[in-house]
Amino acid sequence: MSITEIENDIYLIDVETAGIKNFIASYVLKGKQTAIIETGPTSSVHNVLFGLKELDIKPKEVVYVAISHIHLDHGGGVGKLLKFLPNAKVIVHYRGAPHLANPEKLWQQSCEVLGGIAKLYGKPDPVPEERIIAATEGFAFDLGDDLKLQVLETLGHASHHLSFYEPLKNGIFPGDAAGVYLNEIGVIVPTTPSPYRLDIALSSLDKLIDLKPSIIYYSHFGKACDAVEKLRIYIHQIKLWAKMAKQGIKSGESTETIRRKIIENDKAMQKSLQYVQKHLILRETTLNESLKGFIDFVERFPDFSL
Q1: Is 146 exposed, middle or buried (0-12, 13-18, 19+ CB in 10 A)?
Q2: From CA 118, how far away is CA 222, in angstroms rounded?
Q3: Hey, is 116 helix, strand or coil?
Q4: What is d(CA 126, CA 119) in angstroms, rounded to the nearest whole number?
Q5: What is the domain-level CATH number for residue 156?
Q6: 86-100 per-position pLDDT tens digit
Q7: Which one of 21, 37, 63, 72 is CB 3.0 to 4.6 Å from 121, fit for a cystine?
Q8: d(Cα 17, Cα 12) in Å, to the nearest integer?
Q9: Positive or negative CA dihedral for 67, 117, 245, 220?
């Protein structure tokens, strides 16, 4: 577990789920009050708590825990974490709120989709309803010392997805709306599980670009500059994947053939293929679940124009 000060008053805790480094980030923002963005899964909450201790932040000083969405790798640990943070409330999209209060269906569906990866993440604990803030577009919270966060609804990856904008540093916390940034090799890859909505995801990316951010704080993983350029690169990439999936479905090609053609046409995937194939989680999510998201989308919306 490592802690990095990436800006004044903004820290990154690498939660190192299952010992995997540079994969899931939890961000700590210290104004007069403290907020956490993304908890990671249940299985690595202990690393978040250790990070707070190393930062000399007392549990009672944390007033907000904001999660981009309720998928286990982003918000799965929030129920367990809140047991140690007596004054904190959770900020989550209003559609995700019921699944924090009663996570049983979320857990069952996660096990069906992710299999052993869900077990790796751990079962989420319920969050008391009185500790949940069901947020919508435009909600804002002030941490003091000019540190504020604005809530943006950025659907597409999920139907309950939020991003957070920090105006002082002109940075965005996009959750999974902007893809997975492999910071060790400087490459972005899609995170697009079914039921993925490419059309809505593209609108969400346009919304982020309209902010003209300078910095992206990726949940997967880390700080990156040239934010607008990276958002545009991701738009180009997901359009390419959708185009290849659409052509493949129309021609009756197998999933394996579509996957091979995507790799042949996506320079980022060519550069990152060995990295992804060796990664305990990305080799399943990127090469299988993300591709399935595109195939399902073009099958459901065959008339969508790219």
Answers
A1: exposed
A2: 23
A3: helix
A4: 17
A5: 3.60.15.10
A6: 999 999 999 999 999
A7: 72
A8: 14
A9: positive
Residue 164 · residue 150 · CB < 8 Å: yes
What are the helix (H) ranges across the chain? 45-54, 72-75, 78-82, 97-101, 104-114, 116-121, 198-210, 227-250, 255-265, 267-278, 282-284, 291-300
| Residue type present at position 124 | P
Which of helix, strand or coil describes residue 3? strand
pLDDT band at 215 (very low <50, low <70, confident <90, very high): very high
DSSP H stretches of helix in 147-212:
198-210
Provide mean pLDDT across the span 144-157: 96
Q: Note whether 93 and 130 are same-domain residues.
A: yes
pLDDT tier, 191 (very low <50, low <70, confident <90, very high otherwise): very high
Q: Looking at residues 267-282, what average pLDDT do you find?
A: 96
What does the mean pLDDT of the chain come to? 97
Does the bond joining 141 to the residue before it have cis omega, within 30 degrees of 0? no
Tokens of 52: 């707070």
Over 90: is that where the pLDDT of 72 sits? yes
279, two tokens: 């990664």
Burial of residue 212, with CB atoms counted within 10 A of its CB: 0-12 exposed, 13-18 middle, 19 or more buried: exposed
Residue with tokens 């825990």: 65
Q: Is residue 306 part of a domain?
A: no
- How sure is the predictor about 1, in pLDDT bands with cuts at 50, 70 and 90? confident
Query: Edge-to-edge strands of the sheet including 162-166?
Result: 140-144, 147-153, 162-166, 171-173, 215-218, 222-225
Q: Measured at the alpha carbon of residue 42, what is the angle toward residues 40 and 124, in degrees to the nearest 5?
A: 110
Domain range holding 75? 2-235
State residue 194's pLDDT score: 95
What CA–CA distance (Å, rounded) separates 1 from 3? 7
306 — pLDDT class (breaks 50, 70, 90): confident
CB hemisphere CA count around 175 (13 angstroms): 34
